[in-house]
């Protein structure tokens, strides 16, 4: 029976690797392949610049994959080889090995420190180094997104570049950004915690009431994608869906003027507590 | 079965003499073994509840807004047999709460900690038996509070098991934010009181009541795991309790610890303000991250004991194993911030927490390699407990490695709050800890009840659980890497995730299978309880002190004074002809008169 059990445990690394490879190469029989699983496109498509985060993901996947396969094979081999039913060798009476302990402490430590240091720059770019304008000042936000149970209120500052003035454009759940430009968005919450999640832009930031925060990304391809709320915000959490559209510069201007004109005619201005 | 009776001065078989009132023996017992078994039965019942709640979640994700067969009309007649979005948030909240606070933590510390600690260190009971009894009975207010939450408006708390304010601080935010949330907070507090009483007892017992010769470095790793867990609870729990009271005050008395100014929820403006929602997250995770280790360290210890026993070999690197338990616990206190990388916390702080979190993978890696080293060169016996212990090692590798992804801050931006996280902690807590618990039940069942469980059915239970469990949880990694978020009642509402429906259906089928095969375990457990073959003192030929006591041990545990001569893992020692060498057996060249 020992052989059967060894093979059962061998299935873990084999099937585990197969599932990951299948998903990455769109072999997974049960995926539609439309979004996340396009050929070589495991992450949601319509990506931002340089795939930094995807690259890090794959790097960690390779490193952990080696350990996963290595330990899985070792476990399989030990079970196969040292099955009491077939193994006639006496037990190796050993309490451990100092040299081995040192080796398998230092090697993972180096690998982990490498990962930790290697990615710091990506983190800083994603969170700490806000894009700047030509003169070095922090780039002003393109718009403000406010989370509210269960919708995204989007406010563009208008001509004067300042929020909460009469020329602001207000839209609901429909964010438009220009392509090939670093976009900064101010986010805030009007009630509970939400999380502003743009899967295709690798952007996620909890929206905390009482805090003003900025997120930024650099869209390089035109297209439409989802704004998802990723923090439980109440019973309607699942339907707190917005849409982000990356437009060409001309298309963005056209959309903006049309939306503004529509707002002027409908005179829709959301007020506090408005439903 | 050879038993080494050194001291013939038996502590009078007082099991016969002390049978007093039924209540004082079986209900309000102060005997650590009875308390341990009480914990075991209570937590197993809640395990069933938690598992069924999980099936509700899986049903919704596989066949959203569809009539549940058979039970749908009974439970949700108002919604036409469907799960409503309100109830879905209750399901995710209560599933997690029940599993963490009423199953995993109390089954490890409460059930196994209570049963094993005095037996394994050679004591006749805990240091404070009455306190010990109270630690079990303080679970009952918690059971009642969590049970009551299901019958309040909204049918349960609905703010997630993390209960982040402001959602959890408002009584009007949603159905389930009212009394159910208050009961939830009270329930967590009572669990905390119970754990605190237990942890004081465990620490004192392990430090003070070890048998002669039982030095700290002769303790089984199970005891080391329990000891460090007790330390973690003692230092981290007060923070959660305090935070819980602050949140209760926000809810009931209008304070504003966690509520900023000018908040309006569900169209009702909040009077209070001046607080900060992130404060709750810091306080909550300051307990709940160490709690992750509270949920795994005892399991690691128990797995080490089982592995050494059935590899018939000393544990590889005993001291490094002990140091890595301590290392995990120490680092466990400074990594809570990794739950908050995208919470709005200062991103500079994120870097610190990231490095600390990376480093905590190190002692975990050392443990894994030592487990492999233990199996190497052994005489592996594939008993049911051994299979569960091996699956713990195999699964913990996956759970540990996936942790590195979320420790990496930039990668965490994408996978935070997705099913990648769900995959990770289910690999650690279900595929890891729960497998260790199953293995431990099969392993110590003869000691607890004096009878053996059925091996064949145990192996069938193991194999099916193992297959279905991997089918359920491994796939979650793929979903999560594609961005599939947690806690959405209908993720297919978003085109980005709509193609993941079939994968979810596959997982749900596996999950139903996984829950169904637990019936085999239940039948085996109860059948063996009454009709299993009688077990001798030491059916597995193990070394630990507990195996030298009668099965089941009477009141006062040992019928002789155990004296310890060596560590618990001297299997296959050349000093003896047997392949095991009980801790109480005097060395061959040394005859009587042990000091």
TrEMBL record, chain A:
Q: Which reaction does it catalyse?
A: 4 Fe(II)-[cytochrome c] + O2 + 8 H(+)(in) = 4 Fe(III)-[cytochrome c] + 2 H2O + 4 H(+)(out)
Q: Which GO terms describe its biological process?
A: ATP synthesis coupled electron transport
Question: What cofactor does this protein call for?
Answer: Cu cation
UniProt keyword list: Copper, Electron transport, Membrane, Metal-binding, Oxidoreductase, Respiratory chain, Translocase, Transmembrane, Transmembrane helix, Transport
Where is this protein found? Answer: Cell membrane; Membrane
- Asked whether the UniProt record includes Isomerase among its keywords, one would answer no
| Coiled-coil region(s) | none
The UniProt entry's GO CC annotations, sorted and at most eight, read: plasma membrane
Transmembrane segments annotated in the record for this chain: 6-24, 56-82, 102-120
E.C. code: 7.1.1.9
What are the recorded GO MF terms, alphabetically?
Answer: copper ion binding; cytochrome-c oxidase activity; oxidoreductase activity
Is the keyword DNA-binding in the record?
no
Q: Which residues form the Cytochrome oxidase subunit II copper A binding domain?
A: 138-258
Pfam families membership:
COX2, COX2_TM
What protein name applies here?
Cytochrome c oxidase subunit 2
Q: Which organism is it from?
A: Blastopirellula retiformator
UniProtKB/TrEMBL annotation, chain B:
What residue stretch is flagged as signal peptide?
A: none
- Family affiliation: Belongs to the heme-copper respiratory oxidase family.
Give yes or no: UniProt keyword Metal-binding: yes
The species is: Blastopirellula retiformator
What EC number(s) has UniProt assigned to this enzyme? 1.9.3.1
Q: Where is this region: Disordered?
A: 568-595
- UniProt keyword annotations, A-Z: Electron transport, Heme, Iron, Membrane, Metal-binding, Oxidoreductase, Respiratory chain, Transmembrane, Transmembrane helix, Transport
Name this protein carries in UniProt: Alternative cytochrome c oxidase subunit 1
Q: Name one GO cellular component term.
A: membrane
Q: Which PANTHER family match?
A: CYTOCHROME C OXIDASE SUBUNIT 1 (PTHR10422)
Annotated membrane-spanning segments are: 39-59, 94-117, 138-162, 182-202, 223-249, 291-310, 322-342, 348-366, 387-408, 420-445, 466-485, 505-527
Q: State where the protein is found.
A: Membrane
User: GO terms for molecular function, please?
Assistant: cytochrome-c oxidase activity; heme binding; oxidoreductase activity
The kind of enzyme this is, by top-level EC class, is oxidoreductase
Query: Domain Cytochrome oxidase subunit I profile, which positions?
Result: 22-565
Example of a GO biological process term:
respiratory electron transport chain
Record's SUPFAM superfamilies? Cytochrome c oxidase subunit I-like (SSF81442)
Q: How does it sit in the membrane?
A: Multi-pass membrane protein
Pfam families with a match to the protein in the record:
COX1
